[in-house]
Design the sequence.
């Protein structure tokens, strides 16, 4: 089950990062889930997309503990940087 949750109430699509116990840190897989959630909400007829999180911190960054290691810079770009940039692309 993903820690990225999507709900809909009337014209508002809400995306929640449910990682309060981890300070809101997200893994690369969760970044991909976040991208999918934004794209799905953007393709819907929602008038507003709200992004929220659980816990005291909104999002303290990337949680590398479950990510695959990147042996060189090109792999790091593909494995880490691209998923982050995809989230920004999905928002715009």
Sequence:
């Amino acid at each position: 089950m993903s820690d990225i949750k999507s709900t809909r109430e009337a014209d508002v699509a809400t995306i929640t990062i449910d990682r309060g116990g981890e300070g809101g840190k997200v893994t690369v897989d969760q970044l991909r889930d976040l991208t999918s959630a934004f794209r799905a909400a953007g393709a819907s007829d929602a008038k507003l997309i709200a992004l929220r999180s659980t816990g005291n911190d909104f999002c303290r960054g990337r949680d590398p503990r479950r990510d695959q290691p990147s042996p060189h810079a090109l792999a790091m770009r593909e494995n880490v940087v691209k998923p982050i940039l995809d989230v920004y692309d999905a928002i715009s």
About this structure: Residues 73-91 form the longest helix (19 residues). The CA atoms of residues 11 and 46 lie 5 Å apart. The two ends are 27 Å apart (CA to CA). The mean pLDDT is 89.
